[in-house]
Amino acid sequence: MEKKFRDIIKRLAGEQQAVIAAVSAGLDSVVLARLLHDSGHLAAVAHCNFRLRGEEAEADARFVAQLAERLGVPYHLQSFDTTDYAQAHGISLQMAARELRYNWFRQLAEAQQALVATAHQANDVAETLLFNLTKGTGLPGLHGLDERQGYLLRPLLAFSRTEILQFAREQQIDWREDASNQSLKYQRNRLRHKIVPELEQINPAFVQAAGRTAQRLRLVETFVQGIIDRSSFIEQRGNHLIINLAELSKLPGWQAVLYQALRPLGFNYAQIDQIAAGPHQSGKLFTSPTHQLNIDRQ
Amino acid sequence: MEKKFRDIIKRLAGEQQAVIAAVSAGLDSVVLARLLHDSGHLAAVAHCNFRLRGEEAEADARFVAQLAERLGVPYHLQSFDTTDYAQAHGISLQMAARELRYNWFRQLAEAQQALVATAHQANDVAETLLFNLTKGTGLPGLHGLDERQGYLLRPLLAFSRTEILQFAREQQIDWREDASNQSLKYQRNRLRHKIVPELEQINPAFVQAAGRTAQRLRLVETFVQGIIDRSSFIEQRGNHLIINLAELSKLPGWQAVLYQALRPLGFNYAQIDQIAAGPHQSGKLFTSPTHQLNIDRQ
To answer: Of B160, B144, B126, which Cα lies nearest the Cα of B27?
Structure first.
């Protein structure tokens, strides 16, 4: 595992680049910090306290501080008013935590001239894929994660939870178990503890297989987006997105382009289904939280 | 359910068209025959005996013959030497049964000037999607089924197993339980009895959601295929498929096109991964069971 990790991090970050590990205190991120340390890339450890779990959260923060000390690198701690932020922006706690975390990571990366690595691994990809499948998503919910997106690295994507756990045991690495983690109360845990193991009965390499699928779907999405970007049937003019439905609808499967182009603008699937019903709806108006779409006379 | 079915079959087959129901004796296909009968479309009942399950299979055939008699339509029975066929063609029993069945359906449709309806329903789509996911497929394994493909109809795709079962109970419709069906011995049944119910704990409408996903992925596949068909980077010349890798590889996500174009020619994912690694492999040869691919000097 160490050899494989070294190859990956070299490919993603080059030989010299400093990497900050985002560490929650859980298994994956503690192993990530250790592997980055051993490969000579670890520049610092960063920890987010979302102040949602009282004393548990404080204990996590202390644990990560001690880990940073043992690994001999600086420790960055940020506390967030996650509840306030969620209310102020009218979003879920989960979404709020996500935004706060990545905003801070970006600031850190800029201030420290470093990359930031998160501990997403292969099981996360498989679980997200299955979870989104239960919601009835299109391509955007099924694709995988990139190993590198700008300043963000995900060098554990090639490893499954089982491999990471085995490495932690061999190396006698300690981590803190998230108390909510063992319960089936949350949908994530239903996937992790029930559904994925059943799918592994069908194919023991299910997690890897799902990862390959996600990767291939990501390619398809990139391809469709590339066609959209080069085409003349969807065009950005200032604040306006001009969609030439009459032209677009000559292509087989053209509705796929609408899903890809309109979902990120906040239109929902039901609306896109309606728009996709045909170009003959002159004068109809569709609104998303941020945009409005007007089907114009040709 | 009868009203919804009537709308579907009218859309798929028109008012007059005769439809032959493919009936195995199981729940879905018996309900299919009954709904086709009630909507006035049922022209005949067709049953395949693959001679793989001895007396069980004979009893199924008798049951379907009686059903045809009760519904007052002709009964078509075909027996197959499935085992011989599989051995002769070096394919699995499942694949042999599939080929034999659809070849016969096509002949029937031509001889009778009729359409043939099979009883695939929404759960079949969801289960196939999940099953292929465990294998690590790309788009082709994830898309749904068409409600109509040439002479083939699948008018139950919009219904879940639960709806079909409820209808059968209300209407006091009898069917024969496939003995292998209750066992968890087969992977299909693991999906049906364990995994899908768990996913329905996350979203009770999981089957419908998976169906929508499959439908959207089918659109994407159609779109990518349309781009391939209109493009100049993949071209058919007699028995040769000419791929202009240098040109193709300028498009973002171009590897997605290779998967879509080369999979149906029998190339496997590992080979396509290798071909997708780049256009700079002049002289390399790749072979599938039916084709060979030569990366040519530009």
So the answer is: B160
For residues B223-236, b (16+ Cβ closer than 10 Å) or e, as one string? bbbbbbeeeebbee
Are B43 and B68 in contact by the 8 Å Cβ rule? The answer is no
pLDDT confidence bin for A99, thresholds 50/70/90: very high
Q: Is A253 within 8 Å of B202 when comparing Cβ atoms? A: no
Chain A neighbours among B 99-138 (CB < 8 Å)? Answer: 129-131, 133-138
Beta strand A152-153 with A148-149 is antiparallel
CB contacts of B209 in chain A (<8 Å) are: 133-136
Comparing CA positions, the residue from B233, B217, B231 lying closest to residue B279 is: B233
Both structure tokens of A173:
């690495």
pLDDT bin (cut points 50, 70, 90) of residue B291 is: confident
Contacts of B224 by beta carbon, 8 Å cutoff, 6+ apart: A220, A223, A224, A253, B139, B256, B257, B260
Domain ranges in chain B are 2-121+143-180, 231-294
Which of A212, A226, A256 comes nearest B220 by C-beta? Answer: A256
The class (CATH top level) of B2-121+143-180 is: alpha beta
d(Cα B250, Cα A11) in Å, to the nearest integer?
Answer: 22
Take residue B168 and report the two structure tokens written for it. 């059968």
> CB of A122 within 8 A of CB of A158?
yes
Confidence bin at A123 (pLDDT 50/70/90): very high
Q: How far is CA A228 from CA A24, A81, A231, A243, A249, in A?
A: 39, 39, 5, 11, 13
Q: How far apart are CA A200 and CA A193, in angstroms?
A: 11
pLDDT at A184 > cutoff 70: no
Closest CA to A20 of A147, A146, A105, A121: A105
pLDDT-derived band at A112 (thresholds 50, 70, 90) equals very high
**Whether the complex's predicted ipTM surpasses the cut of 0.85:** no
Higher model confidence: residue A148 or residue B188? A148
Which CATH number among 1.10.8.60, 3.40.630.10, 3.90.870.10, 3.40.50.620 corresponds to the domain A2-211? Answer: 3.40.50.620
* Structure confidence by residue, pLDDT tens digits, B93-108: 888 999 999 999 999 9
